[in-house]
Design goal:
156 residues; alpha+beta; Ubiquitin-like (UB roll); DNA polymerase, domain 1; binds FE2/S2 (inorganic) cluster
Amino acid sequence: MTEVTLTVNGKAVKRDVPDTMLLVEFLREELRLTGTHVGCDTSQCGACVVHLDGKAVKSCTTLAAQASGGTVITIEGLANGALHPMQKAFNDNHGLQCGFCTPGMIMSGVDMVARYKAAGKELTEHAIREELEGNICRCTGYHNIVKSIQQAAGEM
Ligand code: FES
Ligand code: FES
């Protein structure tokens, strides 16, 4: 067992968990934050993306113990009173169908907009499509997902 200490969505949490527990299991099973999804067992789909210390990570390939001491933001922590501009953009552009991939798409979208802004680079439609290579939408709703991220990039 390992003691894992994290700040998750602004709250300090501490749990003793098996050494092999994944961060996504920690979030879903220990904290009941079930907005972070598991859509594959091959680290391909991106449904599990959260932010760890300000960077998008796949929580299905990160051990809870590896993340210990860090700060995690999940989809549940993104809205701050009102919807985050990325959430609003997905709503405005119908950027979801079944919604299974949506938490990961939104967390990846926020991360990519922040990275491009920090680098002073334009987040073009082509760049968004390339950046989304680690996120799969099995409903194939990519067109509206890209439109959503483009809208949010102008508002964030
Ligand atoms: S569940 Fe993490 S990439 Fe699919
Ligand atoms: S909206 Fe269904 S998987 Fe993307």
